[in-house]
Design a protein that fits this description.
The complex is a heterodimer of chains A (about 110) and B (about 110).
Chain A (H helix, E strand, L loop, with lengths): L2 E5 L2 E5 L4 E8 L5 E7 L6 E6 L5 E4 L2 E5 L3 E6 L8 E8 L5 E3 L3 E6 L1
Parallel strand pairs in A: 2-11
Antiparallel strand pairs in A: 1-3, 3-8, 4-5, 4-9, 6-7, 7-8, 9-10, 9-11
Chain B lengths: L3 E4 L2 E4 L5 E7 L5 E7 L5 E8 L3 E3 L7 E7 L2 E6 L8 E8 L8 E2 L3 E5 L1
Parallel strand pairs in B: 2-11
Antiparallel strand pairs in B: 1-3, 3-8, 4-5, 4-9, 5-6, 7-8, 9-10, 9-11
Chain lengths: ~110, ~110
């Protein structure tokens, strides 16, 4: 059974204070690892796809990286508008996505 | 124009009732999904459906049934509602070759009293 564990559950940062979110996974036949952002009362919004170890993707202040066991979402100089819950998901041989519990990020001005 | 829209946004109902949630996507995607997000925020797949195949998560009770009148719509019917069905239900869609890149609706919060 595919499993995804995200840590920390919650992270409070000051504006400009860089940090990383972790996503550890076990999956049979990784087809892709995905990061989503979810704002309160909204559906998740797709951010990145990573397919193989060593791959990196960037978007504004966010950079996602992938190893054989985990993925990191690095947030550089965050702003209050980056506050959200960040979800990680893996797609294995079964083709369905398995989501982690998310990291709730709060960035204070 | 909303890409994936679902209605209603809120449902409050009594145990034992039957309810439906509607979903429509205007992205031209060929696969649609229903997900359940519980109080701990875990998102779990319930159904995956395209015009050829329905894939059901085996843990989903058969009181839940998806119905697709056409490629752009996937409705969720729930019979004999139970307290544990209270959750936020999300509809999503994807292109066939990008099955992990989901476009979600805003969710329907179901409360069973």
């Amino acid at each position: 059974e595919d499993q995804v564990t995200q840590s920390p559950e919650a992270l409070r940062l000051q504006e400009g204070e860089s940090s990383s979110l972790n996503c550890s996974y076990t999956v049979s036949g990784l087809r892709g690892l995905f990061w989503y952002r979810q704002d309160p009362g909204k559906g998740p919004e797709f951010l990145f796809t990573l397919y193989s170890a060593g791959e990196e993707k960037e978007k504004e202040r966010l950079k996602a990286t992938l190893t054989k066991k985990e993925s990191f979402l690095h947030i550089t100089a965050p702003k209050p508008e980056d506050s959200a819950t960040y979800l990680c998901a893996v797609q294995g041989a079964g083709n369905m996505l398995t989501f982690g519990g998310g990291t709730r990020l709060m960035v204070k001005p | 124009d909303t890409a994936v829209s679902q209605t209603p946004k809120y449902l409050v109902t009594q145990m034992g009732n039957d309810k439906s949630i509607k979903c429509e996507q205007n992205l031209g995607h060929d696969t649609m999904y229903w997900y359940k997000q519980d109080s701990k925020k875990f998102l779990k797949i319930m159904f995956s459906y395209n015009n050829k195949e329905l894939i059901i998560n085996e843990t989903v009770p058969n009181r839940f049934s998806p119905k697709s009148p056409d490629k752009a719509h996937l409705n969720l019917h729930i019979n004999s509602l139970e307290l544990g069905d209270s959750a936020v239900y999300f509809c999503a869609s994807s292109a066939r070759r990008r099955a992990g890149e989901l476009f979600f609706g805003e969710g329907s919060r179901l409360t069973v009293l």
